[in-house]
Amino acid sequence: MSEVKTFRVSGWVSRGFRTLQLFKKVRALTVEEALEKFYSDVGSNHRVKRSQIKNVRVEEVREEA
Question: What is the pTM of this model?
């Protein structure tokens, strides 16, 4: 069985005259799934296309119990 991991994904979005920095914690099995979830959520919440999201960084977060 695969283990679900938590990823911290960040990126920048230009919206007219301002730039937004976005952070999101995403639970996924792989980095690709985490990126897909991030693009989907940011696109639906901020009404931006995937090509408008720049400098995307993905880091795995270690959950300490």
Answer: 0.86
Spatial neighbors of 53 by CB under 8 A, at least 6 apart, are 11, 12, 13, 22, 39, 42, 43
Query: In sequence order, what are the residues at sequence separation of 6 or more whose Cβ sits closer than 8 angstroms to the Cβ of residue 29?
Result: 2, 3, 4, 5
What are the percentages of helix, strand and coil residues in the chain, rounded to 5? 30, 50, 25
pLDDT digits (tens, 9 = 90+) for 23-57: 999 999 999 999 999 999 999 998 989 999 999 99
| CA 8 – CA 10 distance, rounded (Å) | 7
Q: Are 63 and 5 in contact (CB under 8 A)?
A: no
List the domain range (segments joined by +) for residue 27. Answer: 5-61
